[in-house]
## 1
Amino acid sequence: MPTFIIFKNQQVVESIRGANPPKLQEAVKKLAAEADSDSAGGFGTAGGTGSWSAVAIPRGYQDVTDQVDAKGLDLLNSSSECGTARTLFGSSKPASLDAGKGKGKSENDGDGGCDWVESDTDEQLMLFIPFQSTLKVHTLQITSLPPTSSEEDDDESPMRPKTIHIYSNRANVLGFDEAEGLQATQSITLNPKDWDEKTGTAKIELRFVKFQNVHSLVLFVFDGEGESEKVRIDRIRIVGETGEKRDQGKLEKVGDHE
C-alpha cells in the first residue's frame, strides 16, 4: 500500500496511507497556505509596511516590493565583490546614506560585504524580477549612491544608471545580445536632475497602460552616467497595485511583448 509522508522542518507532520486523492489535495493546499502565511520567497510584509522608501508613494498606490519572488531573481554581470540581486530589494535603508556615499557595508554574509550591486566586466546589468502575484506597476524607484569624484578616481568610481530598457512578462532573464534585438516595453533615459540629491533616488514613472498585468520585469541597464566601466545600484522599489496571487507551480503562457 502506498504511503505519503509529509515533512516540515525535518519533522513528520502528516502520513497518508493508500491512494486517497482528496486527502492528498487537502494536505497540499494546507502546506501552500502555510507557505503564503510565512511570506516564503518574498520581502517584508504585505503592502510594504516597514520597508524603506526614499520617495513619496503616489496617492492611490502602494509599495509592492514585497511581492518580488526572491527565489527567482537573476542578475547578470554583477561583481562578486558586491551585493546580490536580493540586496536591491532589501527592506533596510541603504547603509551609504548613513555612512556617506559609497562607504556603506552590508551586515549580511555572503553578499561581498557591500550594501549595493555593481556591474563587473562593463557598465551593463541585466536583472530579472519575478513576482508572487500579478501587479499593476506604476513607478520604479532606483537608488544609486556612488562615491563622489573626490573619494575615488573617476575612471574607477562606479556610475549611476543612465539608459534602462524595461521588458515585461518575460519567462526568464534575457541575454545581453538577445535584449538588444528586442523591442523594450519602455526605455528610460535618466538625467542628473532626475536624481534626488539627499537620497540618490530617481523616480521612474512608467506608461501605466503597458504595465497592467505584470508577473515579471527585466531591467536592462544599458549604460551609465559617465565614462567609468561600472554601474552601481543600491535599492529598487516597485510601486503599484497588487492583483491575483500567482500559482507558482502553474506554467503560464507568455503573451505578446510590446
## 2
Amino acid sequence: MHAFPLLLLLLISPTLTIATTLNVHPLFPQPRFPFSSNPPTQFDSLPTPHGIAPLPSPYKNLTFQRASVFNPLSPSLHNIITPEDHNCAVSAPNALIGSRDTEGGPGLTFSVADNGTFALQRLWVKPMNFPEGGNVTVRIFGSRGDATPGTAVERDGDEGLVKWQVEFPVGYHLPFLVKMEEHSQDDWTGLRRVQVVADYGEQKLDWEVCLDDLVVEFESGEEEEGGRGMGRMEGQVVLADAK
C-alpha cells in the first residue's frame, strides 16, 4: 500500500494556512425527500434544496452507493458544517459526500452501471473537518472482481485489488487532487468498482469524505491494436459540469 502524507505539503507549500478547530459536524442522515423524475444532466446543476440530496442512479454510466449530492455553501447547512468545509466543492456548487453506513462496512462506492470496466484517472478528495487529537486517512480501493453485496472492497479477497491512501493532518483544510497512477505508481485500469473510505484517529472512526471532479475512462472490452489491453473511451468528468 502506498501512502502520501499531506504533512509534506504543509512543510513545503507557502500557500497553506493552518487553522485548528474543535467543532465536530454531525453525521448527515440519508436524504428521504423525493427527487425530480427528470433531473438535470449536469452535476453542478443538480438541486440540493436542503443542502444535500440524492444522486440519480445510475448517473453518467456509474452507479453510486452511500453517496449524496452536497452543496457546502447552502444556507440550510449554516451552523451544521464548519467554514473549513465550504471548499469541498472544487467546481461549485456541488460535491459528493459519503461514508460507511455500518461500522466496518463498505464506504462510498461507484461502479459501472452496465457491468463493464473503467479506468480511474483522478479525483479530488477532502474529509469533513475534524477535531484535534487525530488525523484522517482517506483510503481508495479499486476492485476488478465481482462485488459481494454489503461487503467492503478490501475484504473481497480480490487478487486484482489496488489501493492507495492519503493522510490529512489536523489543520489541513484543502481538497487534494489524487492522480491515481502518478501517486500510487499502480495500474487503475480494468476496474469493476471503487470504494472510498475515511477513518479518524487511532480508533479508525468512520468519517465523512467529499469527492469532486471525478474523471474515469470507460473501457470497451475489446483489446487495442497490438494487444495493449482494453480499448478506452475519452476520459469523462463525472462529478462536474462539462467544460
## 3
Amino acid sequence: MSLDESQKHFDLFRDCLSGPLVQRSAVDSAKTNQKRRSKGRKNSIKPVQHEVEVNDSGPGDAEDLAEFVDYVASEIFESFPAKLRSLSYSAVHNDSRLAEKFNDPIPPATLEQILTTVPPSVAESLEAYGLLESQADLPKFLTSILQEYINAATAPPPIWSTTRTSACEICERDWIPLSYHHLIPKQVHAKAIKRGWHEEWQLNSVAWLCRACHSFVHRIASNEELAKEYWTVERLMAREDVIAWAKWVGRVRWKARPTWTLDGHPPMPHANKRFKSGPRQGLGKTE
C-alpha cells in the first residue's frame, strides 16, 4: 500500500474516532437560574438555561483536543493488523474470507484479535482525561468506532450519476453546464481489465467537467494514458499544464447577453476586439 493510501486510511479512522471523543469532551448540563428579581411575582417561573460546558478533566482547548485525538488515533491505528489498515472495497470484493472476517457486525473473534493489540496506554489516557469511566470500558467504546471505520473503508463506489458536483472539478466554475468525463475512457475498458490496470467496479468512475475542461483533458493525453496515469481528478490536477489551464479558463466568464436592436437585429459584434490566448497545451491524442 502506498503512503498516500495509508494516510487516507488513517485519516478515515481518525475521523471515525474524533466524533465520540469530541462528544465526550463536551458535557451537556441544564442549570436553573435561582436568582430572583426584586420585581415581579415571588413564585414566578424562571427560565431554564441550557449550557454546554467543556469537561475540565479533559484536554484544555480545541488545539489540545485535536492533538490528543491525533495521538490516540495513531496509537490505535498502528496496532491494527496490516489488512485492517489497508481495508478497501476491492480487497473484500476479491476475498470472501476477508469479507467474512470484517463483516457487519464484526465477528467476536475478529474483534478480540483487534482489541488485544491496542496498547494499554490508550485506555490509560482516556481514563486519565475522564473520557472513559474505567479502562475496562475500552472494548465497548471502540467497537462502534471500528465498525464505522470498516463500513466506510469497504463501502462500494457510488453510482456515477449521484456524484454530480455543482462546479467543474478542474476550473471550479459553478455557473456553466457540466458533462461527465469517464476517468477511464470507455474505449479502453476491455484493455484496462485485461492488462490489470483497473478492476471492473472502477470502470464507471467519472469527473464532472465543463465542456472546455473536458475537451482539454482529451487533448493532453491519449485514452490509454488517461486510463493508466490520470484516472482520478487528483492525478489530473497534479499536472502543471492542467493547473495553468484551470487558472486561466477559470477567469473566462460570459458577459450578460446583449439586448437586440429595435428593428429586430442583433448588435454588431466587436470584430476588432483582441483578447489573451490561453496557456499552451501539451500535445496528445484526441478521443
